[in-house]
């Protein structure tokens, strides 16, 4: 009877997966045809959500799937943004050179920081990432002759074909979709499954010959690379950078996005990014202390939805399918 129950629950899971793909396809079509009907403000809002969603997804790759308590992920986001800004304002190199260099430099910084951090576990790992990230922020903040210090870098030149809000929107959409597909393929690959195994049972993984540090370092570098890609998108949107991009509070926001949407669900951080950006940009226009609203949302999240919004929905749908399968199994 248990075998029959499993056989009946599997098609239910497949239908749920197919429904998710249909929903994502519909959302993508809507996102493609929507810009002509939006005001500049809402176009900017959606563009910011897409950029932030990629940043949150890159953190969730090491946090949700790798089990690494990365407390200063924003440093790679800021490094990517500053790389574009410095190349375009301090050199005569072409624009696409800056675009290609930014994620590579961010990945290199992730390699340097991760090489030290993967030797530690848990809170010690997180505290070291926080300390090294703040060190990079301090260098950017103090090196005024290169980075502009606390003034940042403004009026960053971008090509004319990327100057309009609509073109920036479509670039963000294309980069987000491609990056999420790549991350999803990596998560479902043997490397991704091994990474999850090192998270769930590091002792057994090591006993069967898995090099845990090497897998965690590779995941750390990949996450830093995609955070650098998000930094490039930020420059396209704002055409300016400041040291606040690398400050620890920015990393806290990204972490909240993952918790809000659900770390156990691949698209969870994307939803969390959308909610948090809307709270900061929409609610903040009506309430001076929008962080109070954010605090209340986090309180409700911790008390009632510790698995995140999408994690909660997935759990309920899976439970419902399991319950129905159990009833059919019992009846048979």
Describe it.
The chain is mainly alpha-helical and 332 residues long. The protein has a single domain (38-331), classed as ABC transporter involved in vitamin B12 uptake, BtuC (Orthogonal Bundle). It is built from 14 helices and no strands. The chain has helices at 2-33, 40-63, 74-90, 95-117, 122-142, 144-147, 165-188, 190-200, 202-207, 212-238, 248-261, 268-281, 290-304, 309-331. The N and C termini lie close together (8 Å). Mean pLDDT is 86; it is low at 1-10 and 320-332.
Q: How many separate helices?
A: 14
Average pLDDT score:
86
| Proportion of residues in extended strands | under 5%
Low-confidence stretches: 1-10, 320-332
Helix and strand content put the structural class at: mainly alpha
Task: Provide the number of structural domains.
Answer: 1
How many beta strands in the DSSP annotation?
0
3D shape: globular
Looking at the structure, the CATH topology is ABC transporter involved in vitamin B12 uptake, BtuC
Please write out the topology.
Layout (H helix, E strand, L loop, with lengths): L1 H32 L6 H24 L10 H17 L4 H23 L4 H21 L1 H4 L17 H24 L1 H11 L1 H6 L4 H27 L9 H14 L6 H14 L8 H15 L4 H23 L1
Helix pairs in contact: 1-14, 2-7, 2-10, 2-11, 2-12, 3-4, 3-10, 4-5, 4-10, 7-8, 7-10, 8-10, 11-12
Descriptive labels:
mainly alpha; disordered N terminus; disordered C terminus; single chain
TL;DR of this structure?
It contains 14 helices and no strands. It is mostly helical and 332 residues long. It has a single domain (38-331), classed as ABC transporter involved in vitamin B12 uptake, BtuC (Orthogonal Bundle), CATH 1.10.3470.
């Amino acid at each position: 009877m248990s075998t029959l129950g499993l056989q009946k629950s599997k098609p239910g899971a497949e239908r749920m997966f197919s429904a998710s793909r249909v929903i994502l396809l519909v959302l993508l079509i809507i996102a493609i045809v929507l810009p002509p009907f939006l005001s500049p403000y809402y176009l900017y809002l959606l563009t910011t959500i897409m950029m932030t969603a990629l940043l949150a997804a890159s953190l969730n790759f090491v946090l949700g799937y790798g089990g690494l308590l990365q407390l200063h992920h924003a440093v790679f986001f800021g490094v990517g943004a500053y790389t574009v800004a410095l190349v375009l304002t301090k050199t005569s190199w072409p624009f696409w050179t800056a675009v290609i260099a930014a994620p590579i430099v961010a990945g290199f910084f992730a390699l340097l920081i991760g090489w030290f951090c993967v030797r530690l576990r848990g809170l010690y790992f997180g505290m070291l990432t926080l300390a090294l990230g703040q060190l990079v922020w301090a260098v950017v903040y103090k090196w005024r002759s290169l980075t502009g210090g606390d003034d940042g870098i403004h009026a960053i030149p971008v090509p004319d074909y990327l100057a309009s809000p609509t073109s920036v929107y479509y670039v963000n959409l294309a980069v987000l979709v491609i990056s999420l597909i790549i991350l999803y393929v990596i998560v479902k690959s043997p490397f991704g499954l091994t990474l999850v195994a090192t998270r769930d049972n590091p002792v057994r993984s090591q006993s069967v010959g898995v090099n845990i540090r090497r897998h965690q370092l590779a995941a750390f570098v990949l996450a830093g690379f995609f955070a650098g890609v998000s930094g490039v998108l930020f420059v396209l949107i704002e055409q300016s950078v400041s040291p606040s991009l690398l400050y620890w509070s920015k990393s806290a926001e990204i972490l909240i996005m993952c918790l809000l949407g659900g770390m156990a669900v691949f698209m969870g951080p994307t939803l969390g990014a959308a909610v948090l950006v809307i709270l900061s940009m929409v609610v903040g226009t009506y309430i001076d202390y929008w962080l109070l609203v954010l605090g209340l949302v986090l309180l409700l999240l911790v008390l009632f939805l510790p698995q995140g919004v999408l994690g909660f929905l997935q759990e309920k749908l899976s439970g419902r399918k399991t319950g129905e399968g159990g009833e059919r199994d019992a009846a048979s």
